[in-house]
Amino acid sequence: MGLSTVAVDPLRPAEAPKPPPRRGNAQLEEIVVTAQRKVSSLQDTPISMEAFSEEKLQMRGIGGVEDLGSNVPSMVIEPHPLSNTTLRITIRGVGITDSQVTQDPAVGIYLDGVYLARSVGLALDLADIERMEVLRGPQGVLYGRNSTGGAVNILTKKPDPSMFNMDHKITIGDRNLFVGKSSFNVPLGDDFAIKLALLGKNAGGFVENTGEGKDFGDRQALGLRFDARWLAVDGLTIDYGYDFTDLEYVNYMFQGVLLPETQHGLAEFFKPYAVANSVYSDRRLDRLAS
After folding, report:
1. What is the pTM of this model?
2. Residues 194 and 228 sit within 8 Å (Cβ to Cβ)
3. pLDDT (tens digit per residue) in 95-130
4. Confidence class of residue 47 from pLDDT cuts 50, 70 and 90?
5. Rounded to 5 degrees, what angle do the CA atoms 195, 132, 55 make?
6. Which of 25, 68, 242, 273 is the most buried (most CB within 10 A)?
7. Residues in Cβ contact with 72 at an 8 Å cutoff, skipping those fewer than 6 apart
8. Residue 72 counted as domain residue
9. Within this chain, do residues 95 and 191 fall inside the same structural domain, yes or no?
């Protein structure tokens, strides 16, 4: 009777799979912000925020504060029912709906570091924006009061004494949308320069007005900004800025309609039940505002 043997290799651990080859020089794009009152990288800033560079603003069609509402999570921006130039802004549900001139908003808006203290007129378009930053949550340590919900930083492009530059941009869309932006940078020496930026915008309304006046939602804007920069000495830069915006809006939330003439006064107009009545005044209050 014979015996047969089989040779078996000793047990050894399985080889780990080889990692995929690394891409050469692959890294995230560095985004520079000034949310902490100093220049820093977005990745190194311990604040919940959204930052939009000039390229990102152009790609998403953001021309002012009003356009941020559809591009920033947890941020809601809506116009006041009686004045489309007045914005009601909330971040993470914190904000106020009252737009009276005696009320301070809960979300602070800063244009080149200057605080815009009221909600009236915030629906402005700017001609030459370099960067926009939205900071979520209370920012009272760095920005003081009126920033319980958060803060919005708007930074415009500054003059450059090193070169002469002209820039023109045109946007065309439906409902007669036309936006034109032009900027001129003129150096006046090695350490001084001025810049002029112009903006024109027209947008047709989307609700037909059967009475007098323009369609509901019509919007015309004309803006101008002048900047001057003087590099006085090392570490000292003096900036001057003048901004002007003329807005003409036609409200679309509500429209005032005069009450019909009745024999019994208002008692016959306000009733606890619905009645069929096709007799209404065609006189409309097209210039109703807050």
Report:
1. 0.71
2. yes
3. 887 767 777 888 999 998 888 888 888 888 888 899
4. confident
5. 75
6. 68
7. 50, 134
8. yes
9. no
Tokens of 155: 């930074």
40 and 146 within one domain: yes
Domain extent at residue 229: 165-249
HEC sequence for the chain: CCCCCCCCCCCCCCCCCCCCCCCCCCCCCCCEECCCCCCEEHHHCCCCEEEEEHHHHHHHCCCEHHHHHHCCCCEEEEEECCEEEEEEEEECCEECCCCCCCCCCCEEEEECCEEECCCECCCCECCCEEEEEEEECCCHHHHCCCCCCEEEEEEECCCCCCCCEEEEEEEEECCCEEEEEEEEEEECCCCEEEEEEEEEEEECCCECCCCCCCCECCEEEEEEEEEEEEEEECCEEEEEEEEEEEEEECCCCCCEECCCCCCCHHHHCCCCCCCCCCCCCCCEECCCCC
Q: What is the pLDDT of residues 228-286, one digit of tens each?
A: 999 999 889 999 999 888 888 887 655 555 555 555 555 455 545 444 444 444 555 55
Q: Is residue 275 part of a domain?
A: no
Q: Within a domain: residue 16? A: no
- Domain boundary pick from 132, 156, 180: 156
pLDDT at 277: 44
237 versus 33: the higher-pLDDT residue is 237
* 150 and 204 co-located in one domain: no
Is residue 97 located within the same domain as residue 75? yes
Q: How far does Cα 226 stand from its chain's mean position? A: 21
Amino acid at 52: F
Q: Does residue 282 form part of some domain?
A: no
